[in-house]
Amino acid sequence: MIAIAAMTPSRVIGRGKEIPWRIPGEQKWFKEVTWGHPILMGSKTFESIGRPLPGRRNLVVSRTRSWPGVEMIRDLAQFDPGQYPAEIFVIGGAQIYRELLDKCRELLITRLKADYEGDVYFPEFESRFELVELIRELPEYVIQRFQRSRL
Fold first, then answer.
1. Hey, where are the domains in the chain?
2. Residue 145 CB coordination number (10 Å)
3. For residues 1-34, b (16+ Cβ closer than 10 Å) or e, as one string?
4. Of 1, 36, 83, 126, which is most buried by a Cβ count within 10 Å?
5. Total Cβ atoms within 10 A of residue 87
């Protein structure tokens, strides 16, 4: 699995159920990278999006809720990513990142250069992953690829 996220210098990834920024180029990149792949998210993230993302198999973690057009994952402990033919992208939120980061082989992190206020944070990962590629550098953000450290 690959986790993909955008975060501020202070690790903010959200404010309530919203993303506190809109950066069209970064959103376009997210769409291009995840298109055709299963995307795995928590129920709060799905509710913030408000609909299944097109062109992707939407997997939503919730023990109790259901929505049309998505596949429900009731128990992450029983979840087997190997049953999907394409690489799964973990797209949030914070709780899902915390629970699945150790199962991810790679991270695609957009580091915004500006700080935004928020109350949802991406977990610490630097001790477990190493930077292997600078994918893109723009005035507003950089996109970096990390792989699990071989310790």
1. 2-129
2. 15
3. bbbbbbbbeebbbbeeeebbbebeebeebbeeeb
4. 1
5. 14
N- to C-terminal Cα separation, the chain: 19
Q: How far apart are CA 27 and CA 5, in angstroms?
A: 11
The C-alpha torsion from 135 through 56 and 12 to 3, rounded to 10°, is -60
- Topology, domain 2-129: Dihydrofolate Reductase, subunit A (3.40.430)
Cα separation, 118 vs 101, in Å, equals: 21
- Give pTM, 2 decimals: 0.95
- Taking the C-alpha atoms of residue 128 and residue 79, their distance in angstroms, rounded to an integer, is 22
